[in-house]
Structures are given as structure tokens and as C-alpha cells.
Amino acid sequence: MIERESHKVISRDKDILGGTPVFWGTRVPVETLWDYLEAGDTLGEFLEDFPSVERKQAVALIERAKKRVLS
Fold first, then answer.
1. What is the CATH number of the domain that holds 13?
2. What are 26-70's pLDDT values in tens digits?
3. Pairwise CA distance, residues 8 & 56, whole Å
């Protein structure tokens, strides 16, 4: 999913982890954030362990998921 420059959150490229959705500009799978949260870890802990992911990216992903669930 390629988005406008100011809203880049997720990318998919068959040459990066076989097309697994990752946070834009990283090799960190989006699923990793959900795994952390499911395990009871905080967003801060995830960001500490994956410093290449920007807080605004993670928050934007969570907000998008929230909108999809609530709409």
C-alpha cells in the first residue's frame, strides 16, 4: 500500500520480506505491533524495541484500524 508522502505508514514490496506489510521505510512487519499489543506490551515498549518505526506511524496505523472497526 503506497500512500502520499505525508501519510506513509505501510508499504508492501515483494522484495522486502516477500511482500509482508511493513512500516514504511523499515523492515518491521506491521503484524509485530499487533503481536506486542496482544501480549500486553505497550506502544512505548514496541517503539523502544523497533526504533526505526516512528511513533506517528504506529499511532496512524492504530487510528486506521480503529476507524475500520467502528465504521
1. 1.10.10.10
2. 999 999 999 999 999 999 999 999 999 999 999 999 999 999 999
3. 10
Domain limits at 55? 5-70
Residue pair 70/63 in contact (Cβ under 8 Å)? The answer is no
Q: In this structure, are strands 10-11 and 22-23 parallel, antiparallel, or unpaired?
A: antiparallel
* 12 contacts 23 by C-beta, under 8 angstroms: no
Domain count along the chain: 1
**How sure is the predictor about 3, in pLDDT bands with cuts at 50, 70 and 90?**
very low
Give the CA angle between residues 19, 8, 55 to the nearest 5°: 105
State which amino acid sits at residue 45: E
Please give the model's pTM, rounded to 2 decimal places.
0.85
